[in-house]
């Protein structure tokens, strides 16, 4: 039970675990773009709600998608 006056925000859950996706794919640009800010930065785990395992996979997948020119590094 959350304490009074301490925020009481609900813990976010990992979307990959909920949907039972075992591997983050660099070709799934629509899913990966949800983990990027409008400036092109990767959203950290504490904000996105991903578990540690999937956050590492998302980071590598975003970097691979950028290398393959599927995602932009920055916005102009």
TrEMBL record:
User: rRNA-binding: present as a keyword of the record?
Assistant: yes
Q: Which gene encodes it?
A: rpsR
The GO terms describing molecular function are:
small ribosomal subunit rRNA binding; structural constituent of ribosome
Alphabetically sorted, this entry's keywords are:
Ribonucleoprotein, Ribosomal protein, RNA-binding, rRNA-binding
Known function = Binds as a heterodimer with protein bS6 to the central domain of the 16S rRNA, where it helps stabilize the platform of the 30S subunit.
Q: To which protein family does this belong?
A: Belongs to the bacterial ribosomal protein bS18 family.
InterPro entries in the record: Ribosomal_bS18, Ribosomal_bS18_sf
- Protein name according to UniProt: Small ribosomal subunit protein bS18
Q: Which organism is it from?
A: Alicyclobacillus macrosporangiidus
């Amino acid at each position: 039970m959350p304490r009074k006056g301490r925020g009481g925000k609900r813990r976010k859950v990992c979307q990959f675990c909920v949907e039972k996706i075992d591997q983050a794919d660099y070709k799934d640009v629509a899913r990966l773009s949800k983990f990027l800010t409008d400036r092109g930065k990767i959203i950290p785990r504490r904000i996105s709600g991903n578990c540690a395992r999937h956050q590492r996979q998302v980071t590598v997948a975003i970097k691979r998608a950028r290398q393959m020119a599927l995602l932009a590094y920055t916005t102009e």
